[in-house]
Amino acid sequence: MQMTWFCWPQLPMPCALCYNCCEQYAKKYDVLFNADKSKCIISRPRDVANKVNCVSNVSFIICGNVIENVESWPHLGQVITNNGSDKLDIMSRRNKFIGQVNNVIC
Question: What per-residue confidence (pLDDT) applies to 7?
């Protein structure tokens, strides 16, 4: 099962509690969570994104496996970034469009 987690830097403990709840569910209903397919994006408000004292190196573990922290990740067809920018998503869609136009022309 793939999961995408969105955590706010001021709430690492509630996110960890959510993971514990998922682990209990997995044990009860014999569900496997694949940490390799799961990613964690820690988003920050834009006004504090570049401050040194923000939480940045938080690791979450589910069913004994560490979930990778990423700065951007495609989720439901849209590229989501940790700073809330749409720039990567727009670039991705633009590149796909150019590729399709090139396929039609060639």
Answer: 47
